[in-house]
Design a protein that fits this description.
Layout (H helix, E strand, L loop, with lengths): L1 H9 L18 H17 L10 E7 L4 H14 L16 E6 L10 H10 L30 H7 L3 E9 L3 H4 L18 H5 L5 H8 L5 E5 L27 H11 L4 E4 L2 H6 L7 E5 L8 H4 L9 H12 L6 E7 L1 H7 L3 H21 L5 E7 L2 E2 L1 E3 L14 E2 L2 E2 L11 E6 L33 E4 L5 E2 L3 E6 L9 E3 L2 H10 L6 H5 L1 H4 L4 E3 L2 E3 L1 H30 L4 H15 L1
Parallel strand pairs: 1-7, 1-8, 2-17, 3-4, 3-7, 4-6, 5-6, 13-14
Antiparallel strand pairs: 2-16, 8-16, 9-15, 10-13, 11-12, 18-19
Helix pairs in contact: 3-14, 4-15, 12-14, 13-14, 18-19
Bound molecules: 2-acetamido-2-deoxy-beta-D-glucopyranose (NAG) (2 copies).
Length: about 575
């Protein structure tokens, strides 16, 4: 009894202590059969693929979001709502089509975020740490950039007249977002202060500079990283003692604004939540939001940010509101970038809380778009060494100790253990020094708050930073051509399939062959281009007008027959009232 009380006191979830973590229905066969029936009906509905042209494409990239991360994130999403967790349905869980993505790079079995961004955004696998360059380029060798640049889907979309957007919780010049516009032999060349001697001498451009150079092609960009855009003689507006980092004296933010205005755009630069809330999408053609000097906050710490930051879902919403004004459609990249950073630090809570925020952003995009004309893809760039195991009870807090029937289990060293852990990383150490560690020097987790923000879950190999994983990641898709994601794919296929679905870039031969598949479901009404919803409103208005017209004609007929009768007079009044309405 004592033990049970103790478990209750360290676990924040009461479900495991007060009875079962599941429902009575779950114990019956009917429950699972009915669930299967529902799923089957949904599956039968999507048997017929949607072969329309994707007017809009949204790529959701969960950085480091392995399948284990999705499972654990799903459990956390439920537990944040005081549920057991496992049964939760994520927004991404509802996508009809799924495939796997093989993430290795040309030279590494386990890839980084730059080589993988080159794969899923440009359609070409690349060398570790290189960005927007084919495998013929060499990491850190400035001279190898020349002639090896490969184009991204974002640039293709721009060239085909679409609006484009990049949203991230990392820096806007970090590997994933930079994959959409930059070409660099090192992903670490964030600003000119980070360029190597060789890069500087040979005129290679830093990534912030490349963002500016490409910014006529980018309608909306939001994330962190503003210190790379302003001179080292100036200070950050939010942290007044932190200097910016550019050495070349350029203020790329004011230059950005000037460039957009010269192009006739109504452009806005914002750096805090208040300014973000004030952005009116209807009156904004171009938006640049840089909310931190470096990466944005983890979702778990966002509330305490000094100047305030929008959530990933809010940034996604604002982006779509601006991008959808383009009648040719848009391409939007949304990165949940700090899932990866949480994992690198073995910080389970941070990684999973950001996974939940990422799913919230997906939910928002699904609500705001139609799968009739918008292809939404959810995938990751690579995995992590994160895993969950230990047969722990249903409803156990995702960061908590393994327990069976409410009893905390002990490992062979006599100490409790968590169900989530890592293959490597800084979480190895626990307390004490490496030298003191015998074979059983694993921290005794009894009474340890493993759900704390900065708690590092245990690992089997001590590394300063936990590494990526090499296992396949998932590709989920809904909307036009989502059936093209259906099996085990090369990661580089994703870019190719997006081009095919949207008829952009080099993959468009089929679009002319199948004109039916290329129409956008828009209609011309009184000279206005209308989408589906607007068309149906217009048709309703048209119908109502016709009814009024018919009524008037009939009433006029009656009037002609009973010219002088009082009834006729009233009817005429009604008719006029009707027209006024
Ligand atoms: C800023 O950069 C210039 C050019 O490299 C350098 O001479 C100067 O010392 C830097 N200033 C500060 C405050 O770091
Ligand atoms: C772990 O800590 C608990 C509580 O202090 C203690 O009862 C237990 O014996 C410890 N286990 C080991 C193997 O040291």
């Amino acid at each position: 009894m004592d033990k049970i009380l103790w478990i209750c006191s360290i676990l924040t979830f009461v479900v495991t202590c007060e009875g079962k973590a599941w429902t009575d229905e779950e114990e019956t066969p009917e429950y699972w059969q009915n669930l299967a029936k529902e799923e089957l009906q949904a599956a039968i509905k999507v048997e017929e693929p949607n072969k329309k042209k994707a007017k809009n494409v949204i790529l959701f990239l969960g950085d480091g979001m392995s399948v284990a991360t999705i499972t654990a994130g799903r459990i956390m999403k439920g537990q944040l709502q005081d549920k057991s967790g496992e049964e939760t349905v994520l927004a991404m869980d509802k996508f009809h089509h799924a495939g796997l993505s093989k993430t290795y790079s040309v030279d590494r079995q386990v890839a980084d975020s730059a080589s993988t961004a080159t794969a899923y955004l440009c359609g070409v696998k690349a060398m570790f740490y290189t960005l927007g360059l084919s495998g013929q380029a060499r990491k850190d060798v400035c001279g190898s950039e020349k002639g090896n640049q490969v184009k991204s889907v974002l640039v293709d979309a721009y060239e085909d007249g679409k609006a484009t957007g990049i949203v991230t919780t990392t820096r806007i010049n970090h590997a994933t977002p930079a994959g959409a516009y930059a070409h660099t032999a090192s992903r670490k060349w964030y600003g000119d202060a980070q360029l190597s001697e060789d890069a500087r001498k040979n005129g290679c451009r830093d990534i912030a500079q490349q963002f500016f150079d490409s910014s006529h092609m980018i309608t909306v960009a939001m994330g962190g990283g503003r210190k790379y855009f302003q001179p080292n003689t100036t200070f950050d507006p939010e942290y007044s003692t932190e200097a910016n980092t550019r050495l070349d004296g350029q203020d790329l933010i004011s230059k950005w604004k000037q460039k957009q205005v010269e192009n006739g755009q109504n452009a806005k630069y914002i750096w805090n939540k208040e300014q973000f809330d004030l952005v009116n999408p209807e009156k904004t053609d171009r938006l640049l939001g840089l909310f931190q000097p470096s990466d944005m906050q983890y979702e778990a710490e966002r509330e305490s940010d000094k100047a305030g930051e929008p959530s990933l879902a809010e940034m996604t919403q604002k982006s779509i509101e601006i991008l959808r004004k383009n009648s040719n459609g848009y391409f939007l990249l949304v990165e949940g970038g700090r899932i990866d950073h949480g994992h690198h630090g073995n910080h389970v809570y941070k990684a999973l809380r950001d996974t939940v925020a990422f799913d919230d952003a997906i939910e928002k995009a699904v609500q705001m778009t139609s799968d009739d004309d918008t292809l939404i893809i959810v995938t990751a760039d690579h995995s992590h060494t994160f895993n969950l195991g230990g047969y722990t009870d249903r409803g156990t807090p995702i960061w908590g100790l393994v327990q069976w029937n409410g009893e905390v289990q002990l490992a062979h060293d006599g100490k409790p253990y968590t169900s989530v852990s890592y293959g490597n990383g800084e979480g190895y150490q626990g307390t004490g020094t490496y030298d003191e560690m015998g074979p059983h020097h694993r921290e005794n987790l009894t009474g340890v708050a493993t759900g704390d923000l900065n708690y590092r879950h245990q690992t089997s190999v001590p590394l300063k930073s936990e590494s990526h994983g090499g296992d396949d990641v998932i590709i989920l898709a809904r909307g036009p051509m989502s059936h093209l994601f259906h099996g085990v794919h090369q990661q580089s296929y994703i870019a190719y399939a997006m081009r095919y679905a949207a008829c952009i870039g080099s993959v468009r031969g089929h679009c002319e062959e199948n004109p039916e598949g290329t129409s956008y479901q828009t209609n011309n009404f009184l000279g206005m281009e209308l989408g589906r919803a607007q068309t149906s409103t217009a048709l309703n208005v048209q119908f109502a007008l016709l009814i009024i017209l018919f009524t008037c004609v009939i009433i006029m007929g009656i009037l002609l027959h009973k010219k002088n009768s009082r009834r006729g007079y009233i009817a005429q009044q009604q008719c006029e009232d009707g027209r006024q309405l």
